[in-house]
Amino acid sequence: MSKIAIIIPARYGSTRFPGKPLAMIAGRSMLGRVVDLARLVAQEYEDVTVYVTTEDQRIADHAAEIDVPCLMTGECATGSDRVLAAAKQLDHTPDFILNLQGDAPLTPPQALQAMIAAFLNDQQVSVVTPVHRLSWDGLDRLRENKKTTPFSGTTVVRRPDGCAVWFSKNILPAIRKEDRTIEVSPVYQHMGLYGYSYAALEKFCGWPEGHYEALEGLEQLRFLENGVAIQTVEIAVDHLHSGIDSPEDLARAEAFLSS
């Protein structure tokens, strides 16, 4: 039986939004909502465990309040570095690790389920991440959001076999002539969570920051810059919400939950 760990990195010291994991959304903390999501999925499997990892005692104290194991880590360059530092503290080595960002409380459960399924169906998969094909209305919303928060929302270009070609904070591909008679747009939005084998995560954390990774601010580009395939899994949802990177994103999430 494969051991799977869902590890939730929750960093207090966000430059754009300090204390973000403790921000309240419709009466519950952001971190609490993410933990609830992870637990909902974990209960469907025999050997899936859920952990929070942080550098800050305030978040650790909140993790204790909501009764989730918390692994303390120091300052880390990326969320993936924090996840590896946490995984090394476990009394077993997970076969597969899901990095569920602590700022993604509106992640659909089926995204996690699809990632676990991809690994269980083919344990040679090194890295997997979910994507969603945007409707034309969804593409319009993403474009509108980027007018005020240009670095919220990531798109991905995929090969026919589902492997990622590239990720960007710009909307890719550019569409010279939009044919809206086609039911959905050709744009895939990436969701900010990853699954990796323990070996792939170790390799990632051992490599230096990539050139394009630094420019885009997207750590997954390090895998592509080092020739490691990222398998995408497509999920169908009516409306895809990005991670919460700013107070404006928080307001959007609260409005959605209150609607």
Secondary-structure blueprint:
Blueprint: E1 4-9, E2 24-25, E3 28-29, H1 30-42, E4 48-54, H2 57-65, E5 70-72, H3 79-87, E6 96-100, H4 109-121, E7 127-133, H5 136-148, E8 154-158, E9 164-168, E10 188-190, E11 193-197, H6 198-206, H7 211-216, H8 221-225, E12 231-234, H9 247-258
Parallel strand pairs: 1-4, 1-6, 4-5, 7-12
Antiparallel strand pairs: 2-3, 6-11, 7-10, 7-11, 8-9, 8-10
Helix pairs in contact: 1-4
Task: Describe the fold and architecture.
The chain is of the alpha/beta class and 259 residues long. The protein has one domain: Alpha-Beta Complex (Spore Coat Polysaccharide Biosynthesis Protein SpsA, Chain A), CATH 3.90.550.10. Helix content is 34%, strand content 21%. The chain contains nine helices and twelve strands. Strands 1, 4, 5, 6, 7, 8, 9, 10, 11 and 12 form a ten-stranded mixed β-sheet that branches. β8 and β9 form a beta hairpin. The longest helix has 13 residues. The model has no long low-confidence stretch (mean pLDDT 90).
Class by helix and strand content?
Answer: alpha/beta
Helix content: 25-40%
- The chain-level mean pLDDT equals 90
User: Quick one: CATH superfamily?
Assistant: Spore Coat Polysaccharide Biosynthesis Protein SpsA, Chain A
Number of strands: 12
Tally of individual domains: 1
Main beta sheet: strand number and arrangement? 10 strands, mixed
The backbone outline, from C-alpha atoms, is globular
Order of helices and strands: EEEHEHEHEHEHEEEEHHHEH
